[in-house]
Backbone:
C-alpha cells in the first residue's frame, strides 16, 4: 500500500526531519563550562522533592520489614511480609486486575485519543471538539466517580436506558460481578482521561512539518498512508511520553475503584494500590501494607524506566 | 477531499455525543428539583432549579473557605512548582551539568511513587513537626508533587531553544541567572503556562492529601470539603452535592477555555 510513497524521491530529499530536531543535532559543541552555580539551579526543586519523599520512602521501606500494626512498637521480621504477600490469595486477583487495567489503558484512552487527535487535526471546529473531550478532565474525581457509579449501578442509568430501548436481555449488575465491574470502571476512566491524550497527540501531530505532509499529498498519498508513513513515525517521542505516563497511572489506579466499588464485592475488583490502602489503613497492618507499597513502587519504576527510555534517548544524543 | 472531511465530522460528532452524554446526565441531575428528588439519577429532566440548587450548595456546603484555600494552593502551588521546575530544567538543558540523567531521575522519580504510599509517613511527620493542618504544610506537599511533571514539560520545551542564542548571550557577558531570566523564561512562557494549567488543575482537584493532612474548615481544600458532604448523604441531597462539584469545576473550566490556545501552542515546541 505504501511503496509509492516510500519510493518517492521528493520525500527522501525534502526534510524528513523537523527543523528543531536538526538544530539540536548541531549543538553537540555547546558550552562545557560547568561551575558550582550550575547545581545551584537544582536546589529549590531538589529540596522540595527530597523533603517530601525521603522520609516517607525510607519509613515505608523500614516498615515493610516489620510486623507494625500501629499500637505496639514494630518488630523486625525480615522478608516475612513479602513472603506472605506471595502466597496471599488476593495476590492473584489484584495482579490480574492491574494487568487488565494496564492493557485496557493502553488500548482504550491511548488508542481512542490517537484516533481523535488524528481525525481532529485540520478539521473545522477542531478547538470545539478538543474542548468536548477535555471537559471530563476538568471535573473532579469526586464528580466523575459519583456520576459513573449512578450510571453502572444495578438500578442505574445504563440499565434504565437498555430497558427503554428494548434490550432487557443486556441488563446486568455491572458493578457486582467480576470481571464486568473492572471493565465498567475502565470505561469510566477512559471517558475521564482520553482528553489529555488527545491534547498531547494533537501537539505531536502539529509538529509534523507541513512541507512533508504537502509533499506526500501531492504524491497522491491518502489519509491512511499519510498517517502511517508520515505522521506515525514523527509521533515517536510523544508516544513514549503518553504511553509511559499512562502505564504508570494505570498501575497505580486507585481513586475511581475506591469511589465506585471500594475494591469489592469480596475484593474482586481490587488493584494493587487499593489492596495496599486496605491493608495499611483499614486493617491497620502497616508492615504488610508497606511491603505491598514497595512492591508496587518497584513495578511502576521498572515499567516507567523501560517505557520512557525510548522517549528520553534524544537527550543522550545531545 | 470533501468526502474525507464529511467522514471525519461524522466520526467526531458520534464520539462527541458519547462524551457529552455523561455531562448531560450530570447537569440534568444537578439541577433537578431537590424537593421531589428520589434516590436515583434519571435521564429525564425532573425540574430545573439551577439557581436554587447552586445557592443551597453554596450555603449548606459552606464552600467559601474551601474555595479561598483552593485559590491559594492552586496559584501558589502551581506557580512555585513551575518556577522551581523551570530553574532545574534550565540547568539541565543549558548549563550541561555532569550526570544529567541522574539529576533527571532524582527529580522525576516522585512522579512514579504511588501517592497512597506517602500518606501515612507524611501524616506522621506532619504531626510531629507541627505542619499538620497548616496551609504551608499542605502547600509544600503540592509543590513537591507538582514539580516532576512541570520539570518534564519545561525541559522538553527548553531543548528546542537554540544554543546559539545562549552562547551569544554569554558572549555578551550575561550571567547564568540573567540568561535564565532574559532568554529562557520569556522563550518558554507558553510551555510554562501549559505546565501551570496542568498542575493547577491537579492541585485544585486533589482529594487524598487534603483529607489526610488537614482537618479544619479554613485550611481544608475544596474537594475534601465536598467529599465529606457525600458522606452525609441523607441530610444533603445528591443534586446539591453535584452542584457543589459543578461550582468547584467552574474555575478550572474557565482556565481551560481561555488557556486552550496557549496550552496547545505551549506544548507544541516541547514535544
Residues:
Amino acid at each position: 500500500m505504501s511503496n509509492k510513497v516510500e519510493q518517492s524521491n521528493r520525500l527522501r530529499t525534502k526534510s524528513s526531519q523537523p527543523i528543531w530536531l536538526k538544530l539540536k543535532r548541531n549543538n553537540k559543541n555547546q558550552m562545557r563550562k560547568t561551575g558550582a552555580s550550575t547545581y545551584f539551579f537544582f536546589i529549590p526543586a531538589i529540596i522540595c522533592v527530597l523533603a517530601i519523599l525521603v522520609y516517607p520512602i525510607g519509613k515505608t521501606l523500614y516498615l515493610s520489614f516489620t510486623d507494625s500494626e500501629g499500637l505496639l512498637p514494630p518488630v523486625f521480621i525480615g522478608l516475612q511480609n513479602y513472603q506472605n504477600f506471595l502466597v496471599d490469595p488476593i495476590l492473584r486477583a489484584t495482579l490480574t486486575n492491574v494487568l487488565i487495567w494496564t492493557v485496557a489503558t493502553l488500548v482504550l484512552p491511548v488508542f481512542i485519543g490517537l484516533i481523535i487527535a488524528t481525525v481532529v487535526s485540520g478539521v473545522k471546529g477542531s478547538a470545539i471538539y478538543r474542548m468536548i473531550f477535555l471537559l471530563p478532565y476538568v471535573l473532579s474525581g469526586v464528580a466523575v466517580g459519583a456520576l459513573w457509579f449512578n450510571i453502572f449501578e444495578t438500578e442505574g442509568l445504563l440499565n434504565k436506558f437498555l430497558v427503554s430501548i428494548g434490550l432487557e436481555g443486556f441488563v446486568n449488575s455491572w458493578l457486582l460481578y467480576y470481571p464486568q465491574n473492572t471493565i465498567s470502571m475502565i470505561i469510566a476512566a477512559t471517558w475521564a482521561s482520553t482528553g489529555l491524550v488527545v491534547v498531547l497527540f494533537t501537539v505531536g501531530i502539529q509538529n509534523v512539518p507541513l512541507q512533508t505532509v504537502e509533499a506526500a499529498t501531492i504524491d497522491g498519498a491518502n489519509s491512511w498512508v499519510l498517517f502511517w508513513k508520515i505522521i506515525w513515525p514523527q509521533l515517536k517521542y510523544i508516544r513514549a511520553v503518553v504511553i509511559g505516563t499512562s502505564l504508570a497511572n494505570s498501575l497505580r489506579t486507585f481513586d475511581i475503584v475506591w469511589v465506585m466499588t471500594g475494591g469489592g464485592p469480596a475484593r474482586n475488583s481490587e488493584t494493587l494500590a487499593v489492596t495496599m490502602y486496605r491493608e495499611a489503613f483499614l486493617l491497620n497492618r502497616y508492615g504488610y501494607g508497606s511491603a505491598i507499597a514497595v512492591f508496587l513502587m518497584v513495578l511502576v519504576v521498572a515499567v516507567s524506566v523501560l517505557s520512557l527510555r525510548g522517549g528520553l534517548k534524544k537527550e543522550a544524543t545531545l | 477531499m470533501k468526502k474525507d472531511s464529511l467522514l471525519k465530522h461524522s466520526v467526531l460528532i458520534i464520539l462527541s455525543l458519547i462524551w457529552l452524554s455523561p455531562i448531560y446526565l450530570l447537569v440534568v441531575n444537578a439541577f433537578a428539583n431537590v424537593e421531589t428528588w428520589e434516590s436515583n439519577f434519571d435521564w429525564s429532566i425532573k425540574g430545573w432549579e439551577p439557581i436554587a440548587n447552586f445557592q443551597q450548595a453554596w450555603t449548606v456546603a459552606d464552600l467559601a473557605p474551601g474555595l479561598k484555600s483552593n485559590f491559594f494552593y492552586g496559584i501558589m502551588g502551581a506557580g512555585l512548582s513551575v518556577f522551581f521546575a523551570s530553574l532545574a530544567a534550565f540547568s539541565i538543558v543549558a548549563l550541561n551539568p555532569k550526570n544529567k540523567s541522574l539529576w533527571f531521575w532524582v527529580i522525576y522519580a516522585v512522579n512514579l511513587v504511588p501517592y497512597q504510599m506517602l500518606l501515612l509517613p507524611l501524616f506522621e511527620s506532619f504531626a510531629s513537626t507541627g505542619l499538620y493542618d497548616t496551609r504551608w504544610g499542605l502547600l509544600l506537599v503540592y509543590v513537591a508533587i507538582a514539580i516532576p511533571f512541570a520539570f518534564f514539560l519545561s525541559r522538553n520545551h527548553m531543548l528546542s531553544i537554540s544554543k546559539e542564542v545562549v552562547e551569544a548571550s554569554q558572549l555578551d557577558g550575561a550571567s547564568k541567572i540573567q540568561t535564565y531570566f532574559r532568554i529562557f523564561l520569556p522563550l518558554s512562557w507558553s510551555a510554562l503556562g501549559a505546565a501551570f494549567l496542568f498542575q493547577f488543575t491537579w492541585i485544585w482537584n486533589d482529594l487524598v492529601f487534603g483529607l489526610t493532612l488537614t482537618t479544619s474548615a479554613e485550611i481544608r481544600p475544596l474537594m475534601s470539603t465536598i467529599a465529606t458532604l457525600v458522606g452525609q448523604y441523607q441530610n444533603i441531597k445528591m443534586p446539591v452535592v453535584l452542584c457543589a462539584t459543578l461550582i468547584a469545576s467552574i474555575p478550572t473550566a474557565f482556565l481551560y477555555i481561555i488557556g486552550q490556545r496557549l496550552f496547545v501552542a505551549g506544548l507544541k515546541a516541547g514535544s
User: Anything to note?
Assistant: Confidence is low (pLDDT under 50) at residues 1-32 of chain A. Chain A has one domain: 38-313. Chain A has 17 helices and no strands. The CA atoms of residues 162 and 168 of chain A lie 6 Å apart.
